[in-house]
Amino acid sequence: MSVPDDRRPRLAYAGATHTGMVREANEDSYVVEPMVFAVADGMGGHAAGEVASEIAADRLRSRLKDGAASVDLMVASVVEANAAIFQAAHSDSSQRGMGTTVVALAALVDPAFPTRLVLANVGDSRAYLFRDGVLKRLSVDHSYVQELVSTGHITEQEARTHPRRNIVTRALGIEPTVKVDTWVLPLVRGDRYLLCSDGLVDEVDDLDISLILEREADQQAAADCLIAAANDNGGHDNTSVIVVDVLEGDEEPPADFVPTFRKDPVLVDADAPLQGNPDIIVVPDDVASSGGLRSLFGTRRRRVLSTLIVVVLLAAIAVGTVLVLGG
Fold this sequence. Notes:
By secondary structure, the protein is an alpha+beta fold.
């Protein structure tokens, strides 16, 4: 798909990544292209997590380099990346259990509509919108602590320091197919988007992120300052940051525009070969194993959620047995 110049959004952007102050290797990968931006935070240890994140970044870069012709194309690209990582993990025992989060922003260039932006997310890497001095999180973490926040068990502030904050409930490469959250967003002049791995938000609070985004007009300076702030606060994880500014667009969000948020899975045709690798097949949801909370194989950074669930269930059974015997 070749996009005419008048259909390309005028954006200014920059990205940066850093190993941090504790880890020996950087398992993050990122994409900074004129029409697509993405952060992937790998898991599975050195030579596994970085492989997973690189696969995701390469797939999104190649599939979306000219933007997304539709939301379905964005989703299909993420699903393809998932399948590629899943296959690679099962082809090499040293990479078994590897996975990655991903958050991606691309120009949506459907000829029938004005150019917009489409955001996709799997895992706990995040997307923020900074507009008129206000920072708003756009993406929703697929994580254990987010489940606790959503059900009212803990607050957002408590989630930042929760001992289980690094348990993710959805990631690329863990199962044959994956659900992808998407949003469609208008191009509003002056909007600033931030994509980041959790290495940033675990170390830097929203107020400090806002102050840096407000102070640093240059995109590269803003990205570098955000990473420096994370490292100054401990730098316990790899940190990747992308800053994207909208230079031309609506003066304000269209009055009749309602941001689209879709959580339903969109699957690639299982009978059609995936671009770049005809051996990869995406398994439909009714064939693939599924569950409300996706568990990941144990790694130093991401722990096994399924083990936690089993412990809770066993504890509940034990309590029930005591009550019955006691009665």
